[in-house]
Write a structure and sequence with these properties.
Structural class of chain B: alpha/beta
Helix content of chain B: 40-55%
Oligomer: heterodimer
CATH topology of the largest domain in chain A: Glutaredoxin
Number of strands of chain A: 4
Largest sheet of chain B: 5 strands, mixed
Order of helices and strands of chain A: HHHHEHHEEEH
Largest sheet of chain A: 4 strands, mixed
Distance between the termini of chain B: 23 Å
CATH superfamily of the largest domain in chain B: NADH-ubiquinone oxidoreductase 51kDa subunit
Order of helices and strands of chain B: HHHHEHHEHEHEHHEEEEHEEHHHEHHHHH
CATH architecture of the largest domain in chain A: 3-Layer(aba) Sandwich
Number of strands of chain B: 11
CATH architecture of the largest domain in chain B: 3-Layer(aba) Sandwich
Strand content of chain B: 5-15%
Shape of chain A: elongated
Distance between the termini of chain A: 28 Å
Number of domains of chain A: 2
Bound molecules: flavin mononucleotide, iron/sulfur cluster, FE2/S2 (inorganic) cluster
Strand order of the largest sheet of chain B: 8-7-11-9-10
Number of domains of chain B: 3
Radius of gyration of chain B: 22 Å
Number of helices of chain A: 7
CATH superfamily of the largest domain in chain A: Glutaredoxin
CATH topology of the largest domain in chain B: Rossmann fold
Largest interface: A-B, 43 and 56 residues
Number of helices of chain B: 19
Radius of gyration of chain A: 18 Å
CATH class of the largest domain in chain A: Alpha Beta
Chain lengths: 161, 449
């Protein structure tokens, strides 16, 4: 059965308390973030149904939101997701070379996951780090000023985790 | 040195923490504000001439005075920290390095507007920045600046941080409110404006992070003093996030009297173009504003030096000028391809269109496809006219300004760099490996080193 752990449940209740009575739907996006962290990095339908029940809204209200926002994964992803920015300012600083390098190094295309389930490569649009380009998001943090060498290091680091 | 009002303390060691921030004079504006009448605070902000720093430049004091105040209905302040306009990363810097400045400004603004529960809507990817803000809020609570009856004033004030989840459109204020209500980020039809019907149908003010932070020096020094900095209707200081082909990318607080030339070439700011390259073009206010070639960037069509402020950057209208926008300053050197850069922006807008209006939903997709075609050497001459035609049909025909924001970069690229587009069409092989270069766009100034 799908269920948040106790700590997450109390976090959910804290979040709901931020809004006026009856406006608990406002907690949807924060709760989906929690769900994605707790349930393997993506939102399977039963997970979304669970969130709907928790917030007393209909499942469709959850699906339509989950599919709108690019941070929510509706399919399984690897343990480490490389989200490399490809918008103009990063392009000016050579993100194309970095993306090509990661593709070769991991032997996957953009959008794919390595066979061992370790890495997923995604391209994303501007993450607000244009001055520190090329860059990617890796979990909670940004990795900036990427070079081939630093990409090698990041991959090593992930493998050792 | 120019005067700094927001970032002057950003590098004091430990400034992220309440104790240090307070020791450096933080939270003084709240002490002052709590002794004032809310209407007088609004008056100070009006006097300061502060204009919204989120992109549109709307006068903040005026926006605050429009807030409806029906009896028995809560009012809300919502801070827009969605910051997703390509080229823009100034709010992140402010929140990351001096988070209490935003919290302080929000408390003053909440008191002025009568908002007991205020929200920061921050883009989901700024996950660690949201943690920094949560920590600052916790400290403010512990020290009696948030919560019930703050500082014995009788005013209750809470601030909550809410993360988005990856959607540029949620920076548009009504899409933001939808998102905060737990829905898809589909912009609302205006009117009603948020000042009348905003969050959960209640009167709401939405302001940018930097706008709210600027309220702190305005209250500390007085609106009149603030208005003395800058020039004309560009009062105070402005954060500029500079990126692209420059030696020193980063966030700078400028006094809006400096010239664009000084901003790009002086060591105090961008430090010039790397590798001895020359300046080709610039998008000075975030990806949505018109790109201009170097010659029109540095001097206006009238031959005056262009300055880093609202009026000067837009001098000449779209024919020869551009806009201040969000202050996302993107510099392109002589090796950059205008077609390719424009293509990445078109792809961005197609990806970010919420899909409610057909001109935006369909038009952004068409523009992306045609630009990709030209960029990859498969374009025809008539594609350039088609692009022009599509952007024209989007502009002004949509629910929210994202449509315009998608149309303008394409329009400006064709307006100023049509020969480069034509060169791509005429040289389908060469354009894959070579760049058109500078032609006649470059700055007339020869830059040393
Ligand atoms: C597509 C789109 C994206 C926007 N993104 C942002 C943003 O990321 N941050 C922001 O402050 N304003 C953004 N705005 C402007 C907001 O709608 C709103 O005008 C602003 O938050 C008001 O604050 P201000 O008056 O303090 O600038 C955006 C507008 C549009 C149309
Ligand atoms: S202009 Fe585009 S983003 Fe704005 S409401 Fe219409 S479809 Fe959505
Ligand atoms: S363009 Fe890549 S972070 Fe902004």
């Amino acid at each position: 059965m799908i269920q948040f752990n106790e700590k997450t449940i109390s976090r959910v209740n804290e979040i709901i308390a931020r809004y006026p009575d009856g406006k608990q739907k406002s907690a949807l996006i924060p709760v989906l973030h929690l769900a994605q962290v707790e349930f393997d990095g993506w939102l399977d339908t039963p997970v979304m149904d669970y969130v709907a029940a928790l917030l007393k809204i209909t499942p469709i209200e959850v699906y339509e939101v989950a599919s709108f926002y690019s941070m929510f994964n509706l399919k399984p992803v690897g343990k480490h997701v490389f989200e490399v920015c490809q918008t103009g300012p990063c392009m000016l600083r050579g993100c194309d070379d970095i993306i090509d390098y990661i593709k070769k190094k991991l032997n996957i295309k953009v959008g794919e996951t390595t066979a061992d389930g370790m890495f997923t490569l995604k391209t994303v649009e501007c993450l607000g780090a244009c001055g520190y380009a090329p860059m990617m998001q890796l979990g909670k943090h940004y990795r900036e000023h990427l070079t081939k060498e630093s990409v090698d290091q990041i991959i090593e680091e992930c493998r050792n985790k | 040195m120019s005067k700094k009002l927001l970032l002057n303390k950003a590098h004091v060691e430990g400034i992220r923490h309440f104790d240090v921030y307070r020791r450096e004079g933080g939270y003084a504006s709240i002490e002052k504000a709590l002794k004032m009448q809310p209407a007088d605070i609004v008056e100070e902000v009006k006097k300061s001439g502060l204009r919204g720093r989120g992109g549109a430049g709307f006068p903040t004091g005026m926006k605050w005075s429009f807030l409806a105040k029906p009896e028995g209905v809560p009012r809300y302040l919502v801070v827009n920290a969605d910051e997703s306009e390509p080229g823009t990363f100034k709010d992140r810097y402010l929140m990351e390095f001096i988070p209490h400045l935003l919290i302080e400004g929000m408390i003053v603004a909440s008191f002025a507007l009568g908002s007991n529960n205020s929200y920061i809507y921050i883009r989901g990817e700024y996950d660690w920045v949201a943690d920094i803000l949560e920590e600052a809020i916790k400290e403010a609570h512990q020290n009696g600046w948030l919560g019930k009856n703050i500082q014995g004033s009788g005013f209750d004030c809470n601030i909550f941080v809410q993360r988005g989840a990856g959607a540029y459109i949620c920076g548009e204020e009504t899409a933001l409110l939808e998102s905060l209500e737990g829905k898809r980020g589909n912009p609302r039809i205006k009117p009603p404006f948020p000042a009348v019907k905003g969050l959960w149908g209640c009167p709401t003010v939405v302001n940018n992070v930097e706008t709210i932070a600027a309220v702190v020096p305005i209250i500390n020094e007085g609106g009149d003093e603030y208005a003395k900095i800058g020039i004309g209707r560009s009062t105070g200081t402005k954060l500029i996030s500079a990126c692209g082909n420059i030696n020193k990318p980063g966030v700078y607080e400028i006094d809006m009297t400096i010239s664009v030339e000084e901003f790009i070439f002086s060591d105090e700011y961008c430090g010039g173009i790397p590798n001895g390259k020359r300046l080709k073009a610039c998008i000075p206010g975030g990806s949505s504003v018109p790109i201009v070639p170097a010659n029109l960037l540095l001097t206006t069509a009238k031959g005056e030096k262009r300055l880093m402020n609202y009026e000067s950057l837009s001098d000449g209208g779209f024919a020869t000028g551009t806009m201040m926008g969000s202050g996302g300053f993107i510099v392109l050197d002589e090796d950059q391809c205008i077609v390719k850069h424009t293509y990445t922006l078109a792809r961005f807008y197609r990806h970010e269109s919420c899909g409610q209006c057909s001109p935006c939903r369909e038009g952004t997709g068409w523009m992306e496809k045609i630009l990709q075609k030209i960029e990859t050497g498969k374009g025809e001459m008539k594609d350039i006219d088609l692009l022009w035609d599509i952007q024209r049909r989007i502009e002004g025909n949509t629910i929210c300004p994202l449509g315009d924001a998608a149309a303008w970069p394409v329009a400006a690229a064709i307006r100023h760099f049509r020969d480069e587009f034509e060169w791509h069409v005429k040289n389908p092989e060469k354009c894959l490996t070579q760049n058109y270069g500078l032609a006649n766009y470059a700055d007339p100034i020869q830059v040393a080193g």
